[in-house]
Design brief:
This protein is an alpha+beta fold and 400 residues long. The mean pLDDT is 94.
Amino acid sequence: MNQTRVIVVGGGIVGLATAYRLVTSRPGWTVTVIEKETSVAAHQTGNNSGVIHSGIYYKPGSLKARLCVQGSRDLVDFCRTHDVPHRICGKIVLATSPGELPGLEEIARRGRENGLEGLRWLEGAEIAAVEPNARGLRALWVPQTGIVDYTRVAERLADVLRDRGSDVRLGEKVIGIEIRPRGDVVVRTDRAEWTADRVVTCAGLHSDRVARMTDRDVAIRIVPFRGEYYKVRQERVEIVRGLIYPVPDPRFPFLGVHFTRMIDGGLEAGPNAVLALKREGYRKTDIDLNDLWETLTWPGFHAVARKYWKTGLGEYYRSFSKKAFTKALQRMVPEVREDDLMPGGAGVRAQASERNGALMDDFSFVEHGPVLHVCNAPSPAATASLAIGDVIANRVAGAQ
């Protein structure tokens, strides 16, 4: 049986950042990362829009707000230190109708309370000076927002871990976790057995299932939402200079379709948000009957469906209608045309739902003896990953 001080389950950016914080702050500790895929960053980390979020949207005082603001600074420092390409380009949040103006004011208030400096209102010609093709009533300039390739960040984290003597085991799936009476933990995979003093699970789309390995009564389920993107044709990418976001619908836990310049110079538009029929289902045709059954039989999903059915229908319509997707984008940038858009990638967001139908908004950690489960880490978890890793590392060290 293999032995290590701490096991981290999951080779996405949160798991890798947690392991990184452990080995850099606790010299001499042995940390092993176990990932079921044959590469790191295979799911949420490697299939997002690559935005370094500022923390402007999140409720002041929440973990999301605090860890996103700190995490964005930590991420930029890491990228600078380890030569990971990134760019702090700023973004505008654009109100296109009078009804969106109060929401934009609220976003500005939250940003100020979360400690963001340099926020600036843009009106009329000022909007055009930043984004010549954007059209709206008013916009908020957010200078802290940036772009990066999170897969490259995750790969660099894995490199640093290996350089420091940690084991990043790929293609090894955790199938059981047992807390023994004497307090240590046995982690069983499809290839080996491990013992550790502490275990941290960062299982993303399977976080609820892994948590149930130690606590059958964990009262959440992951409801997967697929976000689909279009790429803007290369000859048209200059219609957007940086990032343009709409004012998000406060009733729905997503930011709405937006424009994002990529670190490679491309331009993406999206995502929408539709129920995924498979937790790792990146295509419309991907279905897993077990995943779907778990979603449909979860009482919380019924409440979610009743609450958001109208919004959900609109998202599905845009999913199957390129014309409708284009129309949503044209509210912000009338210049964009339907034939500018080519099919892009898709990501699946692991959104935790409580039994009463509440979609968990904040990061959530559940401790069960020597095992700590990261049960909810949606966007901006990639931005906040190093700050999340700090929190977890301190909890793990405090329990030793």
